[in-house]
Amino acid sequence: MDKIAELTDKVAKDLISLPEVKEFLRLKEIMGSDKDLINMRSEIARLTYEKKEEEKSNILAIYNAHPIVNNYNVAREEVITILRTLKDILSE
């Protein structure tokens, strides 16, 4: 079992060192601290609770068009592709 733990640690370290993963983590941190994005997420949640779908849809469109959100989504898809590839290799 120690060998599996060692290999898992190595894979995790190697994954974190990939430029795609670094960029994803960087953008994730920015999304979590950007005041405009935080405010929009709060507003979207409030409008969802209040069932104000049209207003929510408008804010959601602005949120999804934000460059940080766009870049995050692209980076996220790249990381998902890497993880799926790893999963496929391990499933063989």
| Strand fraction | under 5%
Annotation field: number of helices: 5
Number of domains: 1
Return the CATH topology.
YheA-like fold
Q: Can you write the helix and strand succession as a string? A: HHHHH
Radius of gyration: 18 Å
Tell me what the structure shows.
The chain is an all-alpha fold and 92 residues long. The protein has a single domain, classed as YheA-like fold (Up-down Bundle). The chain has helices spanning 2-17, 19-33, 35-49, 53-65, 67-91. Helix 2 packs across helix 5 (67-91) and helix 3 (35-49) packs antiparallel against helix 4 (53-65). The radius of gyration is 18 Å and the shape is elongated. The mean pLDDT is 95.
Short structural summary:
The chain has 92 residues and is mostly helical.
What keywords describe this structure?
0% strand; 92 residues; YheA-like fold; mainly alpha; 91% helix
